[in-house]
Amino acid sequence: MPGLGRKCRLRASVSKVIRREHRGAFMRPSLSASLVILAVLRPMACLADDSNEWYGRVGALGAIYHSSATIATEAGAIPGATAHVSNSETATLEVGYDVTSNAYLVFLAGVPPKPTISGEGSVQALGKLGEIRYGPAILSAGYRLPAFGYIQPYVGAGAAYAIIFRNYDAAVTDLRVHNHFGSAVQAGADFRINDTLAVFVDVKQLWLSVNANGSLNGEIPVTARVKLNPTLISAGIKFRLR
């Protein structure tokens, strides 16, 4: 990152000037104050990202689902019937682009997890209703907030998409869960190691539901609207793509 290197070298030169000035007979107050301020801000300036650059992030992610469901047969909604989705873990890959030194776009995809959907409420006796293998995909735009030393916080928002790769039957047979869009917000921070590497911690909240259908005992058609609404907590390594 040529721009970043120039900024760091400039701040280093300023530090040398300050030391020379201290060794002199006197320092002009206005010059002294300006140089001290620049020296204090040096870590913050070196942390800033340059525009028009690509970066990648790899990490581990845990999904905590705030799930519920509406389940119905041809006769109508089943009173008190709902569902629970088990939490899951996966590995993620993100590719991002710095539109400016503060604004960015980033796309996330993960190794498809396999959460279990279980009956709750009036259908709890059915136990496991089924499982799904799905791929989370999230496209976000964000903004980097002012840095604190070598810590760069950020916030963002975007669109999420659940891609269903495979359905697994249990109490519900012929299970079919359908792809669906949702929305997301995020907040996190990068902890800079050097000019090209950083450690990140990230939290995303998704509002995401899917539609499903199948049969109970192979005879009674059922439909469901399942709210997933996961909180995604991830951490990993960020690196520059030169």
What distinguishing features does this structure have?
eight-stranded antiparallel barrel; 3 helices; Porin; 242 residues
Question: What's the topology here?
Answer:
Layout: H1 2-23, H2 29-40, H3 42-47, E1 53-65, E2 68-73, E3 76-77, E4 81-85, E5 88-98, E6 103-110, E7 116-121, E8 128-144, E9 151-169, E10 172-177, E11 180-192, E12 197-216, E13 220-227, E14 230-241
Antiparallel strand pairs: 1-5, 1-14, 2-3, 2-13, 4-7, 5-6, 6-8, 7-8, 8-9, 9-11, 10-12, 11-12, 12-13, 12-14
Description of the structure:
Mean pLDDT is 85; it is low at 1-47. This protein has helices spanning 2-23, 29-40, 42-47, and strands at 53-65, 68-73, 76-77, 81-85, 88-98, 103-110, 116-121, 128-144, 151-169, 172-177, 180-192, 197-216, 220-227, 230-241. The protein folds into two domains: 2-44, no CATH class; 51-241, Porin (Beta Barrel), CATH 2.40.160. An eight-stranded antiparallel barrel has the order 1-5-6-8-9-11-12-14. It is α+β, with helices and mostly antiparallel strands and 242 residues long. It has three helices and 14 strands.
